[in-house]
Write the structure tokens for this entry.
Amino acid sequence: MLALPLSWPLEGRRVVLIGAGDWLARKLTLLRRTPASLSVYTPDGGTFDIETEARWPEVEDLHGATLVIVAFDDRSKAERGAALARAAHLPVNVVDFPDLGDFHIPAIIDRGSLSIGVATGGTAPVLARETRRKIEAAVPPSEAFLADFATRLSPSLREAFANVDDRRRVWEAVLDSPAARLAREGKVEAALELARKDIQNPQPRTGVVHLVGAGPGDPELLTLKALRLLSEADVIVYDRLVGDGIMDMARRDCERFYVGKARSNHSVPQDQIHALLVEQARLGKRVVRLKGGDPFVFGRGGEEVEALKAAGIEVHITPGITAALGCAASSGVPLTHRDHAQSVSFITGHAQAPAEKCEAVFGSEGATTKNDGEFDHNPLQLDWDRLAAKNHTLAVYMGVHTAQTISDKLTAHGRDPQTPVLVIENGTRPNEKCRLTRLSLLPDALRADPPQGPALLMIGEVASLYTPTAPELGISL
């Protein structure tokens, strides 16, 4: 952030304005919507609908003020006003000359006691205004009634709930209650009466777990519901494959547990993840289990649901965009096509290991590779006859280490060795990398340049539709 947005209380305080013309008039319009006492100096004269003094103030005139705003279109006058404020040891905002001031005034969405500021550090005020316009469309004027309701209810909540966490939980329940709906309709008194009754009979907290799909990596591919749950969560338990930037959307004060898994390296075994989810929910917390891609597509979400239900924990599922869909969109290659593929299968290249080797199993979508470029010769108990059919797309998750087996099995069951294969590494992310090859050449291509991030194999005639934007490892089709 170029600047830290702050909220400055003005009730019972004095603000000094020094300026002229429309620039001063605009700031007067803004400040008169606050409870501040205003002292206005207009060295250039002018007519305003407020009492002004047509002179430059002295330093003594500024004593007792809380801040100063200087509004001239002439830089030399703006510099003089800023110097006066500094001589009085007061913070100053200088309109349109941000380098002369100490703080900036953001573009403001005014909803009564709810105010929203949009700031760009003084560098792009037009962008701030355009962003404000978009937010204003999303925050209806009725939120002013809700803000009034919340302001008046706050003392009652503080008295009833001394613990900050308890108070926050009650607030969240109140703002999603019939009382809040009454307030938005302008029936603030009735809303307050209803909310105060509910406060006297609070319901016991019950924990809940949400299994949430984080998508393949791009934060903008989160669903609206996933975004809301992240902002409400008390606890987030997240995987290695959750994309950069997604955790930045979570509530800042929530607890975070990293349980990422990589091949042959479980930071937290699956049974311990189950225990953690149950433990946190039993503490009455709202837990988000954040998983790369979709929880129910090779993400072991089914196992976690079973464990939570067995423990009597309420659990909900929020789907995410699975890796195959995200990678297809970002690479521009369709999974189905009228001329090239009339069906598609999502398969995993990683089979369940024997119980004594369960530490080698990893969940969630994607894989990293061994540095030595070696492959597993895994039996992969799949219906190879069906998967080898022509004009059938295979989206292979976690298939890098079993590429040799996949190539051998498909060709042995009749798939053309010349079938195109697209290797999509870090799909949807800024460092996405695509490599085009053939089915028979796939193992050698991966040995020559092993993926360093999660990779998906797209096998089938549709891969020939890929158009590289940079030199790629592979072949010409």
Notes: The radius of gyration is 30 Å.
